[in-house]
What does this fold into?
Amino acid sequence: MLHPMPLQRHEGHAVVQIRGLTCGYDKREVLSDVTLDIMEGDFVGLLGPSGSGKTTLLRTILGAVDIFQGQVVVEGVPTSQQRTKVGYVPQLETIDWNFPVTVQEVVMMGRTMDKRFFPWYSREDRMLAAEMMERLGISELANRHIRELSGGQQQRVFLARALVGSRRILLLDEPTSGVDIKTRDDVMHVLHELNHQGITIIMTTHEINAVAVHLPWIVCLNGRVLAEGPPTEVITSEILKLTYGADMPVIRYQGMTLVAESPHAYGRHAEEPEIQKLEAAHTNGSDQGTDHGSGNGHGHGHPHDHDHDQLEELEHKPVQPNPVQDQEQEVEHV
Amino acid sequence: MFEPFEYQFFVRGIIAATLVGGLCGLIGVYIILRRMAYIGHGLSHAVLGGAVASYVMSLNFFVGASIWGFLCAQLITLTTRKRKINADAAIGVITTASFALGIVLISRYKSFTQDFDAALFGNILGVSNGDLLAISVVVVAASLILFVAYKQFLFATFDVEVAKFYGVPTGWIETLFSIVLAGTIVVSMQVLGVLLIAGATVIPPIVARLLTDSFSRMLLLSSTLGAFCGFAGIYVSFYIDVSSGASVVLVEAVLFAAVMAYSNMKSKFSVAVKGPPKAPAL
It folds into this structure.
């Protein structure tokens, strides 16, 4: 169901520039020394455990977090000078589904501050909202209450609200959280389509296998940027261990990247997982590196990888076999 | 049938009750959707402190009580921004403290000899031309504020956090809401009484919510129902000789029961005919 051709990472001008950012709430530091460029047309996934600063990074781009040091520039304007014109889609769990509001009313909220001194939504507002609902396939639901919609339709409503104000950058906080597989695929399909239409997308996610590995670019966070790059380069046991603090074996299988998540092993030395038994039967060689046979072929590292001592070590030294790395091997179907 | 309208006091009273009913119904929509149902109850108690303080300081009742009510509403909003304290707890702390302060002032200054029954339960006989003017000013001002900033109030009520990200000046919206709320409570005290204001701010919006899923229609319905109940309540109170506030709230309660019964019957009938509602496939 996912869009068959995810866009490659774009070269060109950065629409979001984050330089040496240290930020947080009430003098409590959440993110430190973050430097990141989001290019026009990018589709970026922020990956990290709860409390790692994913949502804080989104809120910083929105200009809603105290910046202690550094700067965030969105479309050429520092967030400290002017509120950014960026579309934001909150987690669906935070929505009050009993609120008396129709699909059209929600979509038009995105036009609230256009013609702000005009009490009602103008004819232009209604026209733009109708166009956006048409574009996202929800125009026939305009007069329905938001509770009456399916999960995918609900997500489309909030996407329409985020985009109706002519916004070219879209921030989404866990858009696939708490939804079934069909809805998740539907949401990701819509996002890929929007990205193909030129919308820059930054989203947080906890779902590595179902979501993150299908994105063109991933940023791993845990208080700071630990790594960024295409999934084929970033989704490795070493980086995931740095990010989540747990052993998470990575399997490359027929062009797919699969992560065996083992939360029961957090904080302990992981015991030999079942997956090794599978590898014993299917292993073909012992390629310790990234899976070059799949993904989008974006082969360039990023300065952030050099920021981190451990990652630097990984980049410049041949990776030594260990029980975790042994699991990250090319596996062929027998 | 038209006999009560021969009395000047009754005409003043029924106009006041209709305006106050509509105003409470209008502001009540925002109160209910912000999950602050008891703010009307708490704030009307808090305003009693302001009423006594303005008497002691020889200030105009409306001015003193309105400022006091606004400060209490702002304090409640500021307190709930601390994420550890919910709105209901903040309302409980601030309004009871303000009420207690009023009682202390009454005990200290024995010369305060206002009619407490009227303050607690409302007294339509006491509505003067000055009161009617004050009610009219607040109704016009509140309607104007809520009309001009309709879009901003809607977004901030639906999701205050996200509204901020979209550039809605939520701080100003909160302040305007506190002003409108304080004004509503102060002018409603004379007609409905401290103890019954909560009913007038809660019942009409709930009835409207049962009848519509649209925010704009809920505003219209709630105001209209509030105004109707204000009118009907005072009219009934003339014949059965009961306090005006109690009569208005009882009419609203009867309306709520009727609409609730209608709503239940409608959903049962709908399930029996069409089966349980399903979200359409995409």
User: Anything to note?
Assistant: Residues 3-271 of chain B form a domain with the ABC transporter involved in vitamin B12 uptake, BtuC fold (CATH 1.10.3470.10). Chain B has one domain: 3-271. The radius of gyration of chain B is 20 Å.
